[in-house]
Amino acid sequence: MTILDDARRLAATGPVCDACLGRVFADRSFGLTNAERGRSLRVAVALDEDADFDPVDTTDCWVCEGRCAEFDDWAERAVESVADVAFDTYQVGTRTPPLIEENERLLREEIGADPDAGEPFKMEFNREVGKRIGRLTDAEVDFDRPHVQFVLDVEDDRVEATVNSAFVYGRYRKLERDIPQTEWPCRECDGSGRQGREPCDHCDGTGYLYERSVEQLVAPVVEDVMDGVDALFHGAGREDVDARMLDTGRPFVVEVKEPRRRHVDVDRLESDINAFADGAVEVTGLRLATYEMVERVKGLDASKTYRAAVEFDDPVDADALAAALDELDGATIEQYTPRRVDHRRANLTRTREVYGTAGELDDPRHATVEIHGAGGLYVKELVSGDEGRTEPSLAGLLGVGARVTALDVLAVEGEDEPFEDEDYFL
Ligand SMILES: [Zn+2]
Ligand SMILES: [Zn+2]
């Protein structure tokens, strides 16, 4: 059997459009569309038989039921469905009606071909409509993580468009204490702000234990500028609510859901956020980032530098403090889960390294201490000893009770590489 014999038999099954005919032979002769393959075969058969050429109207095709005449229409509908959304990349998927899949199988059966010979309807639809969307929008196909994902539901005759999130990376400084990183709903009322008909008295009816959070001061501005429907805040760890975050700040990513704008001016966004946060929080170094930056920010091992105001139970002399800090410099600390940490967390002993220490007395009962340590080091306990649960500790080495009265985080930096890797920025 030659390809012409096959084509002749396929064409004899009833009206089969050029694309459906050509698709059976889609693995032959690259550089042709299936419609070109089908039409060429039909022409060749006519010439071979010296018969009059008899074109088929695509809308009469019994295999695709005319759908192969609708590529332009579907592309226009897809573009229309995201008319107010800015996007650079997209991907097209198609839900093929079961009847068309069955027709394709029957067609191939006619010449004893594999049920999946050539190319399925779905693949042609994805590609042909996809090409047209590209021409209408100047956007490019991205199979990995496109800005917009179209699903052409041919069965239900509708286009579904999913607009994927946009991401903004930056670092925040928290200049005031008692601001949690993320919003903190009131436990008494589950964030509703109400107890039955009355306002919740635990949170004064606000629904939050703290009226502000870094998230609430930052994310809504990004959401607004990108014109999205929601925003999530992803931080590279978090400091205690009562600790400030100063100096170089802490890396974060704001994820904006269903953004209509992606190419925003980050310098302007930065000033908008800083104006909104009004001195409680500041952001710096904003960059448009990739989806992968979320995992990087949440997962990259990071060391922390702290500055602690320390109070001693008894007077301490400067030499003793210097010697104790020297002892902690480079030490490996064993820490049993602190008493203040959520008791639902498993109790275990962890070891963490102290990379560097510095500090001096403000007066015999007070000192300011700086500690650079591995991620996960409990600094308040490193100072107090936590009743022997942390060893060694500043209090233990001095033989004097000691506690942190105020804590600032000065730096959060990747252990082995910086957070700011160009591969993660747009
Ligand atoms: Zn067809
Ligand atoms: Zn409440």
TrEMBL record:
It comes from the Archaea. The keyword Flavoprotein does not apply. It is an enzyme of class 5 (isomerase). Keywords: Isomerase, RNA-binding, tRNA processing. Its EC number is 5.4.99.25. GO terms for molecular function: RNA binding; tRNA pseudouridine(55) synthase activity. The active site is at residue 240. Responsible for synthesis of pseudouridine from uracil-54 and uracil-55 in the psi GC loop of transfer RNAs. This is tRNA pseudouridine synthase Pus10. It comes from Haloplanus litoreus.
